[in-house]
Amino acid sequence: MRGFGRSGVVEEIRAAEGEIFAVTSEPQSLASEAQDAWELEYQAVGDPHQEILEDCRENGRFDLYIGDTGVLERHWSSHPNGIFQAGILALTEDRRVLYRWHCRPTHQNRGGASGRVTASHVWSRVRDGLASDTDADWDTDPPLDAPEAFWPYFVAQLFAHGWFAKPKRFPLGRPDDQPSARISAMKPRLIGFAAAWAICFVLLPARRVLLALVGYAVAITPAVRRVNREFQHVPAGRAPEPGGRSLGTEPMTPHPQQASR
User: Fold this and answer.
1) Other CB atoms closer than 10 Å to residue 248's CB: what's the count?
2) What 3-state DSSP class applies to 21?
3) Structural domain tally of the chain?
4) Which among 157, 150, 144 is positioned nearest to 115, based on CA atoms?
5) Residues 184 and 69 placed together within one structural domain of the fold
């Protein structure tokens, strides 16, 4: 989202007599809050009833994967008809498609929470689209702004956030979030947890410590399976379902979508 402003692409789009908008599946109050908090240079629009998305679906022009709400626990966000996964659509005034991409949620992108197309790549492809007279094809392998996540490590971070008793989701990024609740704070916890087990193996009978470790692994297995199930993972080649619902369950966090016109 903010990368479009930081890269100067917003100014270039406007210099070409275009405009850019962010559309989210949350109500307008939360869209406006995000716009102010992130200091976006363009308008954020709430589409909780997915009317804008439905209009974009006309003639197969565009679609998004949709996830259900409530990963691991409920939170303050509101998506009455499901969470938009990330996507970018660029149109001319007569609705010719200049660029289109949507995020297929997987465990490798944390259920759709990370991995966005770089602004410079989008603008380059939009310029290519302006030079054509046909609708642009879907961009299926664009450069992303984040590497793929190592899923077992991410699950371990969720457990670290719950102090290894249960997985706990991370906050959605409001200004009053505590630093200790951020994903970057989990690495020291994981190191300390591993060190504690290593010390136990050194100081205590190894067999008893091993049995305790096996018991802990068995105890958390249902929670691990729940995380694997609740974070949306759509297999390759599976398009959004009719009406927008996609297979899988919930993504980690909602992300307003970008659309330039």
Assistant:
1) 25
2) strand
3) 2
4) 144
5) no
150-163 confidence digits (pLDDT tens): 999 999 999 999 99
d(CA 33, CA 170): 19
- Residue 78 one-letter amino acid: S
Same domain, 144 and 189: no
Which residues on adjacent β-strands are paired with residue 231?
Answer: 250
- Using CA atoms, how far apart are residues 98 and 132, in angstroms rounded to an integer? 8
* Helix, strand, or coil (residue 16): coil
Q: 191 lies in which domain range? A: 151-230
Helix (H, G, I), strand (E, B) or coil at 101: strand
Burial of 185 (0-12, 13-18, 19+ CB in 10 A): middle
Over 50: is that where the pLDDT of 234 sits? yes
**How many other C-beta atoms can be found within 10 angstroms of the C-beta atom of residue 227?**
21
28 and 131 fall within a common domain: yes
- Which two structure tokens, joined as six digits, stand for 220? 């958390």
The token duo for 81 is 């008809």
Could you report the per-residue pLDDT of 9-30, keeping only the tens digit for each? 889 999 999 999 999 998 999 8
Which amino acid, one-letter code, is at 93?
Answer: E
Please answer whether residues 52 and 89 qualify as being in contact, where contact means their C-beta atoms are separated by less than 8 angstroms. Answer: no
Same domain? For 203 and 84 the reply is no
pLDDT, tens digit (0-9, with 9 covering 90-100), for 71-124: 555 566 778 788 899 999 999 999 999 999 999 999 999 888 889 999 999 999
